[in-house]
């Protein structure tokens, strides 16, 4: 029986965060620090005709002003097409960096940045995805269209069909911590503190940009104040920071302003989807056609696999799922929490609700009718799937049986009540990852891996896993992350960190156990003689037989007898060959109550029940927090979030937290999150699946479906604002 896995535990770094001891990228103390401030373009496309930096250079405290005219050129890397600033006079998007002012203080740099004068040769730009649909094309890597069966014929012959278009605006990550970096050089060696979800990715990016060996770059990122995709790719500021530091031969810090964050990393792309569903009169799906188009930039391709997960949700013999992209004069989009999945499932799950009403079948019943017992895409069995249990438990907790079918049939005075539901789905990913454990003879352990913790509780989860398999108390474990001097780990994205890095920590702990057993069995009268490593376990300093705990040796005495102060093992965990024989997904069901004011069109999400099946839960406390966070983000996506672009100028008009609306405490009422645990021995040694993305996947669709039930109005364009309901 597990001692720590599955038990609630507070964050091991929690006190450090709330007392200010935790250091974020911009907070490291480095002597002789200079401050950089980015000057942004005011056009969306064209070239710089002239740039006058003389007044800025004369301003108090200014050390240097970098532009495309005096900044060194970075090396081109064919594998890395990401934007690098100050490399030419070409303008690709509005608010693109055109200069970097470096001064003795932040205030001096910011003031001088306003003195830089830029004249442009503006060219005709296009930032409106709707106007560019005729130029939509398949992504070059070939993930565009997937077909099974004959969906067009099946749709034409279906006795019941629905077809609709759904739209999602550009949305921006708005993490609490602005992106920032501090860089300094010691000879040819670069050290940089950066806000990132992957220190090794930043290291590779910087090494290729400067043409130096990766081993000469150290990237440090112990704490990240929220990211969820905005720090997955190396953004343009780390190269700027490192370039300025090298040229000035002193440390330099750059921190984005809140406004600069709207052009300083990616965003969820503007997405248009068409969904057509065909079914027989019993509700059985006979055809699914799901087409998506979203924007990318003019200089780089990005696609978020919008229709990918939707192919695996329902049993349907005929399906066509396609994704096309169009080039716009905007910065490149990027992954944003539940990328592709939440967008694709908003359209599919809204369409399923429309089909339920066309058939006059309860929306939950329609999903149960089309439940996929095996993966409809590959035909493989699921490694585990408890979605049916999620549906039934969620319906019971929510009181779904009391729902009246007809729209506008439930009221509370002036408020129309609506109940909606949807399905969530996400991949059960695992990537190669390594961890190093040092077990000390004093009964403590040091565990390291170059992963990240953007907030989901990686520090705590890895401490729990290490404590579980080393047989120590959590307070005897010190886990560190976010440093390229530690063993390589994948990006913290895709909800795969616990599966990947957790498996590495487990493997390193098992390697420690094997080392101790080898030491024990060098003694002829060892009580563990003949035992294999899989037969023994560490518990409270005792290396003991699982089947007979009375047969044991004291692990720390054993180390001392062999003059070992510590034992160190590094382990790389990789996805198993067995995974290839199964389909692996995490699933969830969302039930939502909304109240819509009958006169004003105001929507309040009053109650949500979310039930999730994602394997084994390592720490229920932070897991529930993750799911609640996903729900809150889903509320924002459904009702509030939209990046507004004035297409006349190709410029974002709400790049701040005053005008870009996100949910606040008053928007979040009753949220209940429940887990249905799965015993999955295939997915990875710990049996865990990711949940960070999954928590929001079905929420926008469930809210939209609830709004329809309340009002009888089907809103197919997010966000659902009062004007659309009046």
From TrEMBL:
<dbReference type="InterPro" id="IPR008274">
    <property type="entry name" value="AldOxase/xan_DH_MoCoBD1"/>
</dbReference>
<dbReference type="Pfam" id="PF20256">
    <property type="entry name" value="MoCoBD_2"/>
</dbReference>
<dbReference type="Pfam" id="PF02738">
    <property type="entry name" value="MoCoBD_1"/>
</dbReference>
<dbReference type="InterPro" id="IPR037165">
    <property type="entry name" value="AldOxase/xan_DH_Mopterin-bd_sf"/>
</dbReference>
<dbReference type="GO" id="GO:0005506">
    <property type="term" value="F:iron ion binding"/>
</dbReference>
<dbReference type="InterPro" id="IPR046867">
    <property type="entry name" value="AldOxase/xan_DH_MoCoBD2"/>
</dbReference>
<protein>
    <submittedName>
        <fullName>Xanthine dehydrogenase, molybdenum binding subunit apoprotein</fullName>
        <ecNumber>1.17.1.4</ecNumber>
    </submittedName>
</protein>
<dbReference type="InterPro" id="IPR016208">
    <property type="entry name" value="Ald_Oxase/xanthine_DH-like"/>
</dbReference>
<dbReference type="InterPro" id="IPR036856">
    <property type="entry name" value="Ald_Oxase/Xan_DH_a/b_sf"/>
</dbReference>
<keyword id="KW-0560">Oxidoreductase</keyword>
<feature type="domain" description="Aldehyde oxidase/xanthine dehydrogenase a/b hammerhead">
    <location>
        <begin position="19"/>
        <end position="124"/>
    </location>
</feature>
<dbReference type="Pfam" id="PF01315">
    <property type="entry name" value="Ald_Xan_dh_C"/>
</dbReference>
<dbReference type="GO" id="GO:0004854">
    <property type="term" value="F:xanthine dehydrogenase activity"/>
</dbReference>
<dbReference type="InterPro" id="IPR000674">
    <property type="entry name" value="Ald_Oxase/Xan_DH_a/b"/>
</dbReference>
């Amino acid at each position: 029986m597990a001692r720590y896995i599955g038990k609630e535990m507070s964050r091991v770094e929690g006190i450090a965060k709330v007392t200010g001891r935790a250091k974020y990228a911009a907070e490291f103390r480095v002597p002789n620090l200079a401050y950089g401030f980015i000057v942004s373009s005011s056009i969306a496309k064209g070239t710089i005709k002239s740039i006058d930096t003389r007044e800025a250079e004369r301003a108090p405290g200014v050390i240097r002003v970098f532009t495309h005219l005096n900044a060194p050129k970075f090396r081109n890397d064919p594998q890395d097409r990401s934007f690098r600033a100050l490399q030419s006079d070409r303008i690709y998007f509005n608010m693109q960096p055109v200069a970097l002012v470096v001064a003795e203080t932040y205030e001096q740099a910011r003031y001088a940045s306003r003195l830089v004068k830029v004249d442009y040769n503006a060219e005709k730009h296009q930032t409106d995805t709707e106007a560019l649909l005729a130029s939509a094309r398949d992504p070059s890597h070939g993930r565009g269209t997937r077909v099974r069966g004959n969906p067009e014929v099946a749709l034409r012959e279906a006795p019941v069909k629905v077809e609709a278009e759904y739209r999602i605006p550009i949305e921006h990550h708005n993490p609490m911590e602005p992106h920032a970096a501090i860089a300094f050089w010691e000879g040819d060696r670069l050290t940089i503190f950066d806000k990132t979800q992957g220190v090794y990715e930043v290291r590779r990016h910087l090494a290729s940009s400067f043409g130096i060996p990766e081993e000469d770059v150290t990237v440090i990122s112990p704490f990240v104040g929220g990211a969820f995709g905005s720090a997955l790719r190396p953004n343009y500021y780390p190269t700027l920071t490192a370039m300025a530091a090298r040229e000035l031969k002193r440390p330099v810090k750059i921190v984005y302003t809140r406004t600069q964050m709207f052009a300083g990393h990616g965003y969820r792309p503007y997405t248009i989807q068409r969904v057509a569903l065909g079914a027989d009169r019993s509700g059985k799906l006979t055809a699914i056609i799901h087409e998506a188009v979203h924007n990318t930039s003019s200089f780089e391709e990005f696609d978020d696999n919008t229709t990918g997960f939707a192919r695996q949700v329902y049993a349907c013999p005929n399906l066509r799922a396609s994704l096309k992209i169009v080039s716009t004069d905007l910065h490149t989009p990027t992954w944003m929490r539940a990328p592709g999945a939440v967008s694709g499932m908003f359209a599919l799950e809204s369409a399923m609700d429309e089909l339920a009403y066309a058939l006059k079948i309860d929306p939950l019943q329609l999903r149960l009718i089309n439940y996929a017992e095996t993966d409809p895409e590959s035909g493989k069995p699921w490694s585990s799937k408890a979605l049916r249990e999620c549906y039934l438990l969620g319906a019971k907790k929510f009181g779904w049986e009391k729902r009246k079918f007809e729209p506008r049939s439930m009221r509370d005075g002036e408020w129309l009540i609506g109940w909606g539901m949807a399905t969530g789905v996400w991949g059960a990913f695992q990537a190669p990852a390594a961890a190093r454990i040092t077990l000390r003879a004093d009964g403590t352990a040091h565990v390291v891996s170059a992963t990240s913790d953007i907030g989901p509780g990686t520090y705590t989860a890895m401490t729990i896993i290490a404590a579980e398999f080393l047989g120590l108390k959590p307070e005897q474990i010190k886990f560190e992350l976010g440093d390229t001097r530690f063993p390589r780990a994948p990006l913290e994205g895709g909800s795969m960190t616990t599966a990947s890095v957790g498996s590495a920590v487990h493997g390193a702990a098992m390697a420690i156990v094997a080392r101790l057993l080898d030491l024990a069995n060098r003694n002829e009268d060892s009580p563990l003689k003949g035992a294999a490593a899989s037969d023994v376990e560490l518990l409270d300093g005792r290396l003991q037989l699982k089947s007979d705990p009375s047969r044991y040796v004291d692990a720390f005495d054993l180390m001392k007898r062999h003059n070992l102060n510590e034992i160190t093992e590094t382990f790389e965990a990789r996805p198993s060959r067995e995974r290839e024989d199964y389909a692996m997904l995490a699933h969830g069901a969302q039930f939502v109550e909304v109240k819509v004011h009958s006169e004003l069109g105001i929507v309040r999400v009053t109650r949500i029940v979310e039930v999730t099946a994602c394997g084994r839960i390592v720490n229920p406390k932070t897991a529930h927090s993750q799911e609640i966070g996903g729900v809150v983000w889903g509320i924002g996506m459904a009702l509030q979030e939209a990046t507004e672009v004035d297409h006349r100028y190709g410029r974002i008009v709400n790049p701040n937290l005053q005008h870009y609306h996100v949910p606040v405490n008053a928007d979040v009422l009753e949220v209940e999150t429940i887990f249905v645990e799965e015993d999955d021995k295939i997915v990875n040694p710990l049996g865990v699946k990711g949940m960070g993305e999954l928590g929001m996947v079905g929420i926008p669709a469930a809210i939209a479906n609830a709004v329809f039930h309340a009002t009888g109005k089907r809103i197919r364009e997010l966000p659902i604002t009062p004007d659309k309901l009046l």
